[in-house]
Amino acid sequence: MRQPGDRITLQVTGPDGASRNVILVASAFNTDYKAASLSDDATAFVQTVRITPGTPPSLDEIRKALAGLSKEATDRGYPVSAVPNLAAGPDGTPASAVTVSGATGWKVVGGSLTVTVPQSPADTSAYPEIAVFVDSDGNRLFTDSFDNGSQRTGFAQRLAVNPSIKADTAALTALGGGATGADGTRANFIYGALTGTDRTFSSSSGIGGLSAPYGTTVVKFAQDIIAAQGSAAAQAQTIDSGQGVALSAAQSRFAEGAAVSIDEEMSNLIALQQAYTANARVLTAARDMLDTLLRM
């Protein structure tokens, strides 16, 4: 654990035999040992452990993190008996030799370590690992850090090809251990990582149906995104086409109702004029009759 976001996952069992995971996430800034906010394991106890970037956590920091885990869990309402009771030691050992063990009925039955192998975007000393992509915000490695917020948030927008690779593509075929020459080992490793290694993707992406989280390769996930976007575009086009037909029909009916026929209107005007003339003659006759009656 040398980079923020590196993590140790410990599989532990309690006095009742139930299994839980304890995840320690490296952080360069968090000195309060608060629980990290994100984990693919909804039932795990997740806690940050302070490191200096490039240096593994000290025994003292691991102990503080384990103590912080217990306090954080009990503060959130977990009974003491349900919180993993773990200890780190022995004293006087280097960080690389720290042993984490259980107490009061708790046992550590397994563990795994997730680390960022290149130490910087320009680091090509690891073999065959190499940083092909970087976080364009500061041209930094993606380490899944939680410092200053989750690095995952908005990373799809910031993902960029490593400028060091673009400047010197020979690194993709370079031999390890400082040997001269070239081969396809590193390129094949990258290809395998993209096409043959399953990754976990958030269900919030809308990909994967009922699987939450969704596990597949990077290439397959990209293909699923393209297929989903294509399907959504086709569906939107179908809806738009149907709405266009309905709009055209409505506009046609409105035009029919609002249209003015010159012939029809002239015919109506002539009829009105004739009716007016007839009425005028009737009124004239009535006036003449009244005049005659008044003169008698």
TrEMBL record:
Domain Flagellar basal-body/hook protein C-terminal: 252-296
UniProt cross-references to InterPro entries, sorted A to Z: Flg_bb/hook_C_dom, FlgK
Domain of life: Bacteria
Listed GO biological process terms: bacterial-type flagellum assembly
GO cellular component terms, A-Z: bacterial-type flagellum hook
Family: Belongs to the flagella basal body rod proteins family.
PANTHER family: FLAGELLAR HOOK-ASSOCIATED PROTEIN 1 (PTHR30033:SF1)
Name of the protein: Flagellar basal-body/hook protein C-terminal domain-containing protein
Species of provenance: Methylobacterium gregans
